[in-house]
Design brief:
alpha+beta, four-stranded antiparallel beta sheet, 2 helices, 16 strands, 21% helix, elongated
């Protein structure tokens, strides 16, 4: 009887611990969510006025070694852009006027739809090796490197799209239908995860182009060049989805 009582007691304590942990996570998410509503009410929410856009720079197709850019990040007083060439990714440095400076090639790098640059100037990107992997590497003008030579920081059978939020020192990446936000040294255990479909993105019906991270906001760009409206931008407070998930678990 004593052994049975101990088993029952241990099971009860284990269940109680899980319940307390879930409740604590819910309470924190709820508090964060309410804070975000206050921010929006006070005018601290994100407001995008597309009519007030400003031209930063432009290039003429055919006047340099590339056709078009998939993704663009400020870099070295100018820009670093990415685009695909067959199975490879080209990273190309441009000056502040979008004039060609140099380029490097990552063989089997893939589509190049998004990447990030950390505080040390390293590129964080997805490459194709044993499925897909996230790697970081230095920009090397004129170099050509193979994806298989890069150290894997995270592997997935699903297509990965990577971002780096330098201001908050966070890595973001997409896998399947989710966007994960992680500490750079722990990509396998996301701090936050948000479901794209729960945020109104219709996977399979909308063309998922790329995304960017400026925590706590994520920006998704979708659309195909054959559509009348060629892109759609979504900004999402990640805590909203955390709150929804935890509410269902209680």
């Amino acid at each position: 009887m004593a052994a049975t009582a101990d088993i029952a007691k241990n099971a009860y304590n284990s269940t109680l611990s899980v319940l307390n942990n879930v409740k604590a996570a819910y309470d924190q998410a709820n508090a964060d969510y309410l804070d975000s509503l206050d921010d929006q009410a006070n005018g601290a929410g994100l407001d995008i006025n597309e009519s007030a856009h400003q031209l930063m720079a432009q290039y003429v197709v055919g006047k340099s070694p590339y056709v078009g850019s998939q993704y663009c990040i400020p870099y070295g007083g100018g820009y670093l852009i990415s685009y695909s060439s067959g199975e490879d990714t080209i990273y190309q440095q441009m000056d502040s006027s979008m004039k060609y400076v140099s380029k490097m090639t990552v063989k089997n790098g893939g589509h190049g739809s998004s990447f990030g640059i950390d505080g040390s100037g390293n590129i964080w990107a997805s490459v194709r090796h044993n499925g897909y992997q996230i790697s970081k590497f230095a920009y090397q003008p004129g170099a050509s490197i193979d994806a298989s030579s890069l150290t894997s920081l995270y592997n997935s059978p699903d297509l990965l799209r990577v971002n780096y939020d330098t201001s908050n020192n966070l890595v973001g990446y997409t896998t399947a239908e989710s966007y994960c936000v992680c500490d750079p040294g722990n990509l396998s255990n996301p701090k936050k995860t948000v479901s794209l479909s729960a945020m109104g993105f219709s996977v399979g019906q909308q063309t998922w182009q790329s995304q960017s991270l400026s925590y706590p906001y994520i920006f998704w760009q979708s659309g195909a060049i054959t559509q009348i409206v060629i892109q759609r931008l979504l900004d999402v407070l990640m805590l909203t989805q955390i709150l929804r998930n935890l509410s269902k678990a209680i």
